[in-house]
Write a structure and sequence with these properties.
This protein is of the alpha/beta class. The protein is about 35% helix and about 20% strand. The protein has a single domain, classed as DsrEFH-like (Hypothetical Protein Ychn, Chain: A), CATH 3.40.1260.10. The chain is built from 4 helices and 5 strands. It is globular, with a radius of gyration of 13 Å. About 30% of the residues are buried.
Length: about 120
């Protein structure tokens, strides 16, 4: 099975990115044969930026993304969303790749399930 998780919210301020990553990590643990891909859109592209200082009382999104990547998941970040936020030249976390709508379309069509956060 292939599952695509699309995240739209910033890494901190709401718990959507946190909950999406928790779900991805749990799917990887409970069903190792399931392919999990993540696509970061809108303010969620901030999830892919390394060396963030985690606000007091929050979870660490970078650590969670690294965990998902280390278990073989693809993590893509919308290039247009990055550009509009001034992130065009910012290096992403190792394993997070700049992407585009064509690749999101392909991931969507290849997936058995698509879940948005």
């Amino acid at each position: 099975m292939k599952i695509l998780l699309i995240i739209n919210d910033a890494p901190y301020g709401t718990e959507k990115a946190y909950n999406a990553l928790r779900l991805a990590m749990n799917i990887q643990k409970e069903s190792p044969d399931t392919e999990v891909a993540l696509f970061l859109m809108a303010d969620a592209v901030g999830c892919g930026i390394p060396n963030q200082v985690t606000p007091s009382g929050y979870y660490n999104i970078e650590r969670m993304i690294k965990s998902v990547v280390s278990r073989g998941s693809k993590v893509k970040a919308c290039g247009t969303c990055m550009d509009t936020r001034g992130f065009a030249e910012i290096k992403l976390i190792d394993g997070v790749e700049r992407s585009n709508m064509k690749e999101l379309t392909d991931l969507t069509l290849e997936s058995d399930k698509v879940i948005t956060f």
